[in-house]
Design a protein that fits this description.
This protein is mostly helical. 69% of the residues lie in helices and 0% in strands. Helix 1 (3-21) packs antiparallel against helix 2, helix 3 (47-62) runs parallel beside helix 5 (86-98) and helix 4 (66-76) packs antiparallel against helix 5.
Length: 139
């Protein structure tokens, strides 16, 4: 990827982040998708795809568009360093939980817990950790 394209992707991503901070997810997603469109194919070869899909999936989750969150966060798992990223597993597990895929939710939240422990759940709705405690033994 050339430097000009990379810089434009970063600029659009930062603009999206500013909208997301204001809970303006429609405009945040618009900026994130514009940045995503600039990534060369195959998109899953680029680390930029990972952080953009993470931001998109996070915005989907925060905007309660859980199905889109599942789709986008699952796609992020195919990028370099996707699998094993505790934030991705957390958000994917939460989205799976919200659409009723409880087995997949338990799997993703278990991965999250295995990587980060309880700490990552502390700023989240307690229902996700309570759900996880019904699925695995937590000391």
């Amino acid at each position: 990827m050339d430097e000009k394209t990379h810089n434009e992707i970063e600029k659009l991503s930062q603009e999206g982040g500013l909208y997301a901070e204001k809970a303006d997810y429609k405009n945040a997603l618009n900026k994130y998708w514009k940045a995503y469109d600039l990534i060369p194919n195959p998109k899953t070869d680029w680390e930029a795809t990972l952080w953009l899909l993470a931001a998109i999936g996070d915005s989907n989750f925060l905007n309660k568009d859980f199905k889109a969150g599942v789709d986008n966060l699952t796609s992020a798992m195919h990028c370099p360093n996707g699998i094993g990223n505790p934030f991705l597993h957390l958000r994917l597990g939460q989205c799976q939980y919200e659409i009723g895929n409880l087995e997949k939710a338990a799997d993703e939240l278990t991965r999250t817990y295995g990587i980060e422990g309880k700490r990552i759940f502390e700023s989240e709705d307690p229902k996700y950790f309570e759900f996880l405690k019904t699925k695995i033994e937590i000391n």
